[in-house]
Amino acid sequence: MPGVSGRELAERLTDLRPGLKVLYLSGYTDDAVFRHGVLEAEVAFLQKPFTPAALARKVRELLDG
């Protein structure tokens, strides 16, 4: 996504669709991501690498929550 971060894209899309659910994925450790202020603690986040089962669980959790 040249010229835009995932967070910025999510903010733009949730402005257009307030009920939109967003799942952030990152190769950085969750500690580093939160420490640098990229995400708030209540944001749905999945750290790479992850298994298909872990992705499915996280998506289900996000949709149900």
Descriptive account of the structure:
- The protein is an alpha+beta fold and 65 residues long.
- 46% of the residues lie in helices and 12% in strands.
- It has three helices and two strands.
- A two-stranded parallel ribbon has the order 1-2.
- Strand 1, helix 2 (30-35) and strand 2 (44-47) form a beta-alpha-beta unit.
- The model has no long low-confidence stretch (mean pLDDT 80).
* Shape by Cα distribution: flat
What is the residue-mean pLDDT, rounded to a whole number? 80
Distance between the termini: 28 Å
Q: Major sheet, described briefly? A: 2 strands, parallel
The rounded Rg comes to: 12 Å
The spatial strand order of the largest sheet comes to: 1-2
Would you count the extended β strands for me? 2
Derived structural class = alpha+beta
Percent of sequence in beta strands: 5-15%
Question: How much helical structure, as a percent, in the residues?
Answer: 40-55%
Q: How many helical stretches?
A: 3
Q: Regions with pLDDT < 50 over 5+ consecutive residues?
A: none
Q: Sketch the topology as an H/E string, one letter per element.
A: HEHEH
